[in-house]
Design a protein that fits this description.
Layout lengths: L1 E2 L2 H11 L18 E2 L11 E11 L6 E11 L5 E12 L5 H16 L1
Antiparallel strand pairs: 1-3, 2-5, 3-4, 4-5
Length: about 110
């Protein structure tokens, strides 16, 4: 399992929306498509996330890409889970990633300058 990025935390927070304490936690609780909100999030909470890759496969229509299914759990500052969801994302394969090519060009350019 790896740490999730700040963007993933922000995405989770945006899906959840503002939370407030409730006497009846089951009523009016926001739902994520394919996810759940087991505990409320309060203003001022610090959120952390862990993501786990569940499965991966090659894209049939885009040979330079792969498709990854990920399960993410968000925790508050006390380690209490506040959100859990699964999502499927399309990612670049290592040899095709634009950033890799950019870094290779930069390294080549740096070597030429020396």
């Amino acid at each position: 399992m790896g740490e999730a990025s700040c963007q993933q935390c922000a995405d989770a927070r945006d899906r959840i929306g503002p939370q407030r304490p409730r006497r009846e936690p089951e009523r009016d609780q926001p739902r994520l498509r394919g996810g759940e909100v087991p505990n409320p999030v309060f203003a001022g909470d610090t959120l952390y996330a862990q993501s786990e890759v569940l499965e991966k496969r090659e894209s049939r229509s885009r040979p330079e890409m792969g498709i990854v299914k990920v399960r993410t759990v968000g925790y508050n500052q006390n380690g209490v889970p506040v959100v859990e969801f699964k999502r499927t994302v399309m990612v670049w394969k290592r040899d095709f990633a634009p950033r890799r090519k950019l870094m290779e060009r930069r390294m080549r350019f740096a070597g030429e300058r020396q």
